[in-house]
Design goal:
Length: about 180
């Protein structure tokens, strides 16, 4: 198992640090993936720069992580949302991570940059309860509308909170 290695110098990290200063919190590599943690207040500006000026035009993945109770994690927000960007000409990837915390985890939507973020943001909202401000249709995508919890949060009990008992049973023949 390899560990995350801090990056001291990399062309795109140097550009981000020069342009956004303290909003670039730290950078590292893990299994050849370049990761940059940015402050949520600069998220849209950083992603806009990467898309419009640095050539990372393709959003290939958007996901979330709940770090509640994560071993050896002493600082940082409870949740992180990551954006995997691809520069198609060179196949270079960069992962932009941003922290967001309880009680009202909210980030700006990136739908204005990538229309393909639509369902990915909805999935993160559905599983973690992270809201994306400015998303035109932020509603559940995997769980039923009546479901009131967020099943990928670390504090969600493995056996649920009883919400499944409220759903009508569907037999195999009905499905």
């Amino acid at each position: 198992m390899s560990a995350e290695t801090p990056v001291t110098s990399h062309p795109i990290v140097d550009q981000l640090s020069e342009r956004f200063g303290a909003s670039v919190i730290r950078s590292s590599t893990f299994r050849d993936n370049l990761r940059v943690l940015v402050d949520h207040s600069a998220l849209i500006e950083v992603l806009s720069f990467l898309k419009n000026d640095a050539g990372y035009t393709f959003l290939s993945e958007l996901g979330g992580t709940d770090y509640l109770g994560y071993p050896d994690r002493k600082e940082g927000a409870r949740f992180e949302v990551h954006y995997v960007l691809l520069k198609q000409e060179t196949s270079e990837r960069i992962i932009i991570k941003v922290g967001v915390d309880d009680p009202d985890p909210t980030l700006p939507s990136v739908m204005s940059l990538w229309g393909g973020a639509d369902w990915m943001e909805r999935e993160v909202f559905d599983m973690y309860g992270i809201r994306f401000e400015g998303h035109p249709d932020l509603r559940r995508i995997l769980m039923p509308d009546e479901f009131t919890s967020y099943p990928l949060r670390k504090d969600y009990p493995l056996r649920g909170r009883g919400e499944r008992h409220n759903f009508p049973k569907i037999t195999r023949e009905q499905s």
